[in-house]
Amino acid sequence: MTLTLDNLHRLIDALLAKKVRVVGPKRTGAITVYAPLAKGTELDLDQLPRRSAKEVFFPPCETILSFEKRDGKTTVSDPDLDLLPETVLIGVRPCDAAAPGILDAVFSWDYDDPFYLERRKRTTIIGIACTASDDACFCTAVGLAPDARQGSDLFLVPLQGGGFAVESLDAKGSALKERHAALFSAGSNAQPLPLAVPAVDPLDLAKVKAWLDENFEHPLWQEIADRCAGCGACAFLCPACHCFDIVDEGGEGSGCRRKHWDACGFGKFTMHASAHNPRDVQAQRYRNRIMHKFKYYADKFGQTLCTGCGRCIRWCPVGIDIKAVLDEINGK
Amino acid sequence: MTSNHQNTETPLIDPACYAAATAAIRTEAVRLLVAGEVAAVVGYRAGRRTGSVMPDVATTVEAAGQLLFSPACQNNLALFLSKAKREVLPHGRVAIVVKGCDLRALAGLIGESQLRRDEVHVIGVACPGVFGANADLSKPLSAEGLARKCRACKVHLPEGVDLVAGTLPPLPDLPDLEAEEIARLEAMTPQERWAFWTEQFSRCIRCLACRQICPFCFCTQCLCDRNRPQAVDTSPRPAGNTAWHMVRAMHLAGRCSGCAECERVCPMDIPLNLLNRKMAQELYELYGFEASMQPQEQTPLTSYRDNDDQSFIK
Hints:
The complex is a heterodimer of chains A (332) and B (314).
Chain A: E1 2-3, H1 5-17, E2 21-28, E3 31-36, E4 61-70, E5 73-77, E6 87-92, H2 94-107, H3 114-121, E7 123-128, E8 154-158, E9 164-168, H4 171-179, H5 205-214, H6 219-225, H7 233-237, E10 244-251, E11 254-261, H8 282-301, H9 311-314, H10 322-330
Parallel strand pairs in A: 2-6, 6-7, 7-8
Antiparallel strand pairs in A: 1-9, 2-3, 4-5, 4-11, 8-9, 10-11
Helix pairs in contact in A: 5-8, 6-8
Chain B: H1 15-34, E1 40-46, E2 53-58, H2 61-64, H3 83-86, E3 94-98, H4 100-111, E4 120-125, H5 148-151, E5 163-165, H6 177-186, H7 190-202, H8 209-213, H9 238-252, H10 261-265, H11 272-287
Parallel strand pairs in B: 1-3, 3-4, 4-5
Antiparallel strand pairs in B: 1-2
Helix pairs in contact in B: 7-9, 9-11
C-alpha cells in the first residue's frame, strides 16, 4: 500500500476530526519537537526532533496525585487515567520508535506503572524510515537500522518522487489503516529513497558488556568524568533514559505529588536523607550511565538501553561522545 | 539533519588564524609541562566527529601536543577553575587556554576569591570568533554559524595574559543580532514580553545544563535544589521554570561575564544570554559597571556607597 504526503496530512486531519490526539515532529521556533499537531501540514519530517518521543508515554512532568486540606479534613485524589486521550504518534524515526518497547520491561517489572502503561495501550506508533543522518547517529552499531520496524505499528518508507510505502506490522496498525482505507492506494512501482546509513564503526555489544562486567573500577570512568559537567542534557534527550523523581509541590492547603524526569548525572541524584551520597563523585555517576545502559539493563531484561539516536552526543555541553566511549571499551 | 544553518563554503575567517593559534598553544603547553612550570594545561582537543572538540586536561607532553584551537572551541574552560570542576585538576599550578570572553570569567572568579592569579598560567587566544549553538562544526565558519556573542565581542584580543596565542585577522563587521533582539524585547509591552518569555521557558526541561556549564554557578548548595523548604519547584512546569531562570538571572547580575555558554548548551534553544546581557546593561546604566573586565572584589551589588541612588525606596 502507498500513501501520498497530502494523504498523510489528510490522515492526521481525519484523526483530529475524530478527537484523536496526534503527536508528531513539529517545528517550534528554531527547533523541532514531538508535539500535538493542530493540522496535518504541521508535520515536519525533515529533522530528528530535539527531544525523543519518550515524552508521549513518560512526560517530563505529570501529576500522580493531588491533595487538599479544607476544614481540618484532607482529601487525596488520583488523576483519572480514563481521561488519557487515544493518541497516534506519527513520523517517528526508528531510534525513537524502538525505545518504548525497550522501556516496557522496566515499567511493568516489579510494579505496573499505570501512567506509562495506560499511555502505551492508547497509542499507535507510525514509524518512518530514516533518509538523513549525521555523524552523531549510530543506530546500526546498537542493533537497529534506519529502516528498523521495531516498535512501530505502522511503518512508512519514503519513496522516490514523494509519498510513502506503508506496512502494517500489527493489529493496531492494521486497524488504523482500515479505518482510513480510502486514503491509501495500491502499491506503486516507485523505489524507496536511499536510507541514511550512519558511517560508524560497528560495536560488539556482548564484548562491551563483558568488559563492563569486569571493570566497575577502571581509570576510564574518571577520565570521562573529568570533563562531564554533571547536567542532565544527555538523560533528558535520551529516548531510553527513564529515571524520575517524585516531589510534592503546592501552596498552603493544597498541592500535587508530581513525577518528573531525573538524571543520574546530577550530583544529588543519589543523595540520601542522611546526607550520605553513595555516588559522591562524577566518575561514579558517569559509570552508572554506561553500566545501566549496557550492563544492568542487559542483565535484568536482556536489552540495551540505547537506540543510537545520537542526541546525547550532539547536545553534550562538553563534547562527551558515548559512541567514542563505547568504541574505546569495544577496543579493549 | 540537525543543523539549522546552511553554512556557505567560504570561511568567514582565514583558517590559518586558528592554525597559528593552535601551533602557539602547543608550543607553550609543551614548554610549560617540560619545564615543570605547571601540572596540567586545560585546553581543547579534537573529538571523534568531524570538526568537533572537547575540553581536555593535558598532563603529558603528548597530550599537550594535541591541544588545538578552532572555531569549534566554544567551551568556556574557566569552568575548570571554578569550584564545580576544580577537583579534576592535579595539584599545583595549572595553565589554561582562554578566549577573551573566557578570560573575563577568570577575572570574575579571581574577584570572587575563587582562585588567585598566581595559581594559573593564562594562555590567551587571539580569537576571531567561534561557532554558535546549532552550527554544523564540520563546515567552515560562516556569518550564520558564528556565535551571536562574537558579533558584539570587545575582547577578541585578551589582555593581561601570560601569552597571546595567534594574531587577530581583520574581522568582519556584522550586525549585533543580540542587541537588535534586546531592543525588540525592550520595545514590547510588559505583557508581550511576558508572553515571549513564558513561551521560551515553556520549553525548559530543567536539565540544568545552563547551571552546570556556568563558571559562576559554583554554589555547593543551589537554592533551586533545596527541598526543605523548597524555594523553587523542581518540576518542569511554568511556575518553577520561570522562577528558576529569574533566580539565575538575578544571581548572575553584575557577575556574568557574557560567555553565553548557558545559551549555547541549552538543548531547548532558550535565548538565556538575552537575560544576562540585559542585566549587564542595567548594571552599566545604573553604576557604570562592567562585570569581570578586571578582578574586583567590590562590585555594585556586593558593596555600598553613601551616594547610591535610593530613590527606589518609597
